Every structure is written in C-alpha cells, then in structure tokens.
Amino acid sequence: MIATVIGTGLIGGSLAISLKEKGVAQHVIGVDQSAAHLARAKELGIIDEDATLEAALERTDLIVLAIPVDGLLKLLPQIMDKVKPGQVIMDVGSTKNIILQLVAGHPNRGRFVAAHPMAGTEYSGPEAAVKNLFTNKTIVLCDVKNSDDDALEMIENMVDQLQMRTVYMNAEEHDLHTAYISHISHITSFALALTVLKKEKEQGRIFELASGGFESTVRLAKSSPDMWVPIFKHNRNNVLDVLEEHIHQLEQMKTLLEEEDYDTIYKLIQKSNKIRKILK
Amino acid sequence: MIATVIGTGLIGGSLAISLKEKGVAQHVIGVDQSAAHLARAKELGIIDEDATLEAALERTDLIVLAIPVDGLLKLLPQIMDKVKPGQVIMDVGSTKNIILQLVAGHPNRGRFVAAHPMAGTEYSGPEAAVKNLFTNKTIVLCDVKNSDDDALEMIENMVDQLQMRTVYMNAEEHDLHTAYISHISHITSFALALTVLKKEKEQGRIFELASGGFESTVRLAKSSPDMWVPIFKHNRNNVLDVLEEHIHQLEQMKTLLEEEDYDTIYKLIQKSNKIRKILK
Question: A40, A90, B46, B53: which could form a disulfide with B41 (CB 3.0–4.6 Å)?
C-alpha cells in the first residue's frame, strides 16, 4: 500500500522508516509545511517522495498525521472532509479528548483511528528519526468503537507488523493516564532545568559535577516547546491535577526535612521504591 | 599496594574491581558489617579476601570508606585514631561539610583525602558493582590543602589510573553544587514516584503506558533510603534551598497553566532547553 506521512519529524520520520522496513507500505509520501524538513527527509531516504497534501490524497491508502496537537485540530477536519472511500486516517497525538470531541459528528469519523504510540525521544525534526523507535513499545488506540471495522483492521495489522503492544482506552482515560505517565515528567524536567540553570548563573561551576542521575532526570527538558505547549493546553485539567499532587509531595518532603523527621522521609523513600516493580 | 574497601556495595565493590583491573592495587581486602554482602563480594571475585577492620588496618596501604555518610561520621574518626604512618584514608561520600568539620582538628587529619566520585546507579549491594563505573567520570577532591602531600599524591595517582577527571572544591562549594546537580534529582524522582503510585492505586492501568521518558525521570526513585536519608540530613540547608526554588518553578508553571498564559510557558520551555548545552 501507499502511506502518506504528514509531518516528517521524529515520530513521522521514524514511522515512515518502519512502515517501509517492515513491509507495511511499499511507498511512503511525505508532506510537511517546512520545505527544509521535507527536503531533508527525502535526502535521508526517510520518504520516497514529497508531495502536497492534495496530490498525496489522490492516491494514498493511509494518511498518518504526525504533527503537534494544535496543528491536528486544524488539519484533521480538513482531511476528513476530503478523505475518499477506503482511505484511512491515523494520528499519533499525545492528547485525545479535545480532538475526538471536535470530529465526533463528522460524517467521515469512521475513517479515522485515534492512536498514540508511547515512544519518542527528546529530539525533533527528520534528523531525529530512527529505526525501530516503535518496536516493543505500546500504542494506545482510543475510542475504536467509532472507527469503521476496515479502518481499525488496517491500523491493527500495521501495529502488529511494527511489533507494538496495543492498549485500548477511551479518550478520557488516555488523557488522564498520559498526564501521569508522560506530561508531568516533562513539566518536572523543564522546571528542574530552570532551577539549575538559574543557580548556575548565580554560582557557576554547577555543571562540572553533572553526572548520569542528573542527566536522566532533566533530559526531557531538551524537548521542543512547539510540541509540548499544545499538549499542556489540550490536557490542561489533568496536567493541573497531577502537578498539584506532585507539588504537594514535594512540599511534604520539604516540611519533613524542615522538621528533621528523617524516619518519615525514610518511609516515604521506601514507598517510592515500589516503582521498581513497574520499571524494568 | 594493598587496598581495603570498607563497604562492598555498588561504589565500594565497583572501586575494588577497578583498583585491581587498572593495576592500582595488587590485593583488595573487603570489610563490611553485613556478613552476607562480604560473602557475596568474595564469591563474585570483587574482593580478594575478607577481614575485620582491625586485621585489615595491620597491613593495608589504602583504606577506602564506601559507606553511607551517617556511618562515615562514626567510623572515620575511629579509623583516623588507628591509622599508621604511610597509610591513606579516602571516602566516597556524597556530602562533605559535616564530615570535614568533624575531623578538622584530628592529629591524623593529613592522612585523609575527602573524595566524591560523581558516578553511581540506582542499584545497591555487591551485585550492583560494575566494571568501569568510574571511567571518564568526574571525582571531586575536597579541601585538599588539609591532606598530607604524599596522601594526596597517592589518591591523585589512583584517580589518573582510573581515568577520572578531577575537580577541586572546598566542602561548602561541593555540598551546594551536589544539592543542585544530584540531591534534588533524587527528591524529584522520589516525589514523582509517590505521585504516580498514588494515582495508580486510585485509578489503575496507569503503568500500561509507562515509556522511556517516564522511566528516565523516575529511575532514581529506586535508590536506597539507607544511602539517601543521611545525605539529605547532612546537606539539609542546601537541599531545602534548591527544593524551595524547584517548588517555586513548578508553582509558576501551575499558575501560568491556570491563567492559560501559553506564551510565557513557551518561553520558559525555550529557556529550559538551554540545558542542551550542558548535557551531551
């Protein structure tokens, strides 16, 4: 089949590579509002051909929207207006509720499968695209009851061929869970980077001591604001909810440290160690 | 030379391996209050021999204290009381100020070199010891003016042979910098793990979606409370200082999100992206 990837950055580019490599698509068309990204994606062999959206829609089987979620709000309804019988649209957006509400009543809603692969890195653009980004990762498919059977089947087959693990959720569940498992990690990293950069400015020499633990905790602070501001906007209520809880936990640590209640700090750390069961 | 490692866990065990492998020591004696750790360290070939502290002190050239910083407070003065001419004592503790104040007036202060290798993992015990943990890592040597020339020279030679990069600091600087570059990362991870574990309990299914970004941010929450509570205790003022600043940054994000001031959030994320210059 022919696949079109709209947005040839980290996720779209990596998906284009995998679709070809795993034999899901024989030909991948790239569409991007950035001419530079598109040229680079072609140069790197990530896409077979670049085209306008209109030209791609003339002959593609699958359309994957791999753009920030604010762009999705504009482009998804336009593509759903133009989609032909048999064509399938998929997104890879990190938030789902607002988008699915927006297209809920669309006559071509059935052609759309809402997807969120839980994979990525802190880098962006076609240069960031890598082989096997999705292998053994989880993909969330949302509100699949509203997708046509054949559309869902195409995506489920694709997911199998990409060797991904599928989780089905409704949009509300998805947005709540990702706030806890992904969005808060980014806010924490951004805030921690700001904290340390500020101190470095006052004090200097801080980064001479940066080691693996620090790097691990702040690496997400390299992530693009173009991607993340729209996510925080779309998932504002859930993000505020988890942010409040996280601040509460930090305040608690602070109070315990002020009161020198080391026994309780010990117990809290022991409790947090239970995360071992979840992480490999 | 003969080296004695007191504490055969992650750091002491890894150091024992490297001392032998790089030819710094021909024989490594292990001392540990846990008989199980000591037996395991010998079984794994990390140490050549186990001994009591007293027996080891009879014939060792170098004594490395690789135990939590609260244990160091008790044991370091005792060992300084017993140290023989020519013997050198080194620690690997994550805090320095309290310990160096404690031994400031000791007649054998010159035999001690205060060191902190900026290397580790979230695991502990002899099983966690690994080859090359220290290669290309930074080691901080503190208040070296108070160490005897020959003692410092032995440690500097060792550090060279381990292929580490040396940074010299006074104890106050060290404790301030590590609060920002290491201790706060651990508090954040512990608090984030508690936040998510709490929500998981209420909500379930959260961890189905855990991916690399989450794992990276919370992996330090697997760290041992036996090591970390004493560090927070010793470095309480600096940790409180950075924790306050971090909470302030998170509160700012929260307020901006409440007010839907996405332009300012965008600018803050851009600013935090400057961490790219520091991280590889």
Answer: B46
Per-residue pLDDT, A210: 82
In this predicted structure, the answer to whether residue A207 has a pLDDT above a threshold of 90 is no
A178 and B249 in contact (C-beta within 8 Å)?
no
ipTM: 0.91
Domain that residue B269 falls in? 174-277
Contact call for B266 and A229, based on CB within 8 A: yes
- State phi, psi for A85 to the nearest 5 degrees: -55, 135
Q: Which domain CATH number covers B254?
A: 1.10.3660.10
Q: Of A169, A176, A135, A149, which Cα lies nearest the Cα of A22?
A: A135
**What is the residue type of B257?**
L
Picking from B178, B182, B194, the nearest residue to A271 by CB comes out as B194
Low pLDDT (below 50) residues in chain B = none
Number of domains in chain B: 2
Q: Tell me the pLDDT tens digit for each residue of A147-206.
A: 999 999 999 999 999 999 999 999 999 999 999 999 999 999 999 999 999 888 877 777
Is there a contact between A6 and A12 (Cβ–Cβ < 8 Å)?
Answer: yes
Place of tokens 């076609």: A126
Residues A151 and A14 in one domain: yes
Q: In this structure, are strands A62-65 and A49-50 parallel, antiparallel, or unpaired?
A: unpaired
A108-135 core/surface letters (b: 16 or more CB in 10 A; e: else) = bbbbbbbbbbbbbbbebbbebbeeebbe
Residue B148 CA to residue B267 CA, distance in Å, equals: 51
With b for 16 or more beta-carbon neighbours within 10 A and e for fewer, the B115-135 pattern comes to: bbbbbbbbebbbebbeeebbe
Interface of B with A in 187-206 (CB under 8 A): 187-200, 203, 205-206
Selected residue of B188, B240, B242, B261 to mutate for chain A interface (largest A Cβ count, 10 A): B188
Residues B265 and B160 in one domain: no
pLDDT tens for each residue of B233-263? 999 999 999 999 999 999 999 999 999 999 9
